[in-house]
Design goal:
By secondary structure, the protein is mainly alpha-helical. It has 6 helices and 2 strands. It is globular.
Amino acid sequence: MMRGIRQMRSAGGRPQTPLGAVLRGSAAGALGTLAMDLLLYRRYRKDAGKSGFPRWEFSADVQSWDQAPAPAQVGKRLYEGLFRRELPDRTAALVNNVMHWGFGILNGAVYGVLAGSVPVPKSRYGAPFGAGVWGSGYVTLPAAGLYEPIWKYDRRVLAKDLSAHLVYGLSTAAVFRTLDYVRRPRR
């Protein structure tokens, strides 16, 4: 153990640095985001969506801020507030992707720190994690004027959104645990 810095323990009981937990959590968050997107894409196709996965995934049909979903709107506000410059419509799809994937990866890093802080991280920790990510959106996005308050959505909409975030959380947790097991100490 290093002086002044408490090392985390991995699932195999091996020491794990905070940076290692953040990196594994970030990678797990990226794969969790992909798992969630695959579920959402499947639903989109089931509802008669016509675009192929790459076009859908990278928001190719988003041509303006009026069409842009909440992640893009948050990114637009952050950029314009920070730099005091307006973003053109042509950047809406890019900003949507950066924010969506960035949020998934950043939340994965947070998960890595939390899960890396317990003696043995469990995949089941992903369910409350995913639910927490889902719930935070229904607190922050209405406050930002981008969503309605949660009570204005019907149960079906909320259930579909929650289930997608549960897939994200459980996938992130399973990947984190798997990456923790396959990690080998240097000799």
